[in-house]
Known about the structure:
By secondary structure, the protein is mainly α. The protein is built from seven helices and three strands; from the N terminus they run βαααβαβααα. The chain has helices spanning 7-13, 19-33, 53-64, 77-82, 92-102, 112-116, 119-132; strands at residues 2-5, 70-73, 88-90.
Amino acid sequence: MLYLFDGYNILHASPFRERDELVDRLASFVAMRGARGEDTSYGDLAVRFAEEADALIERLAAEHRAQEEVWVISSDREIRGTAGQETRRVSSKNFLRDLDESAKPAPEGRSQIEDALDENTRSALERLRRRRH
């Protein structure tokens, strides 16, 4: 499964003040879902900053949609339209609602994210968290 996030589009629709906050949440999100990323930077999340981000998202969707499930998360209708019928397309607002739901703690007090992570990913995320503080 490949998630293609229109990062700044999501950031502008979110309550996050900094892009690092969004990256942290997205890293947790993809780790919970067993998604993968290319050029992994944060566990299974690859972060790419591109001047032509729209074109990159469209190209990656076209390259991967025949081999695996591709999700395109953006409020940009043009991106969602050109990503192809074979992709799952979600608006930033709807994705953020789902992201908030996935972050709610499990009844026994532990997060579902923590339970879903393997030890290597959990350690990598902890190192990232410590570097920022």
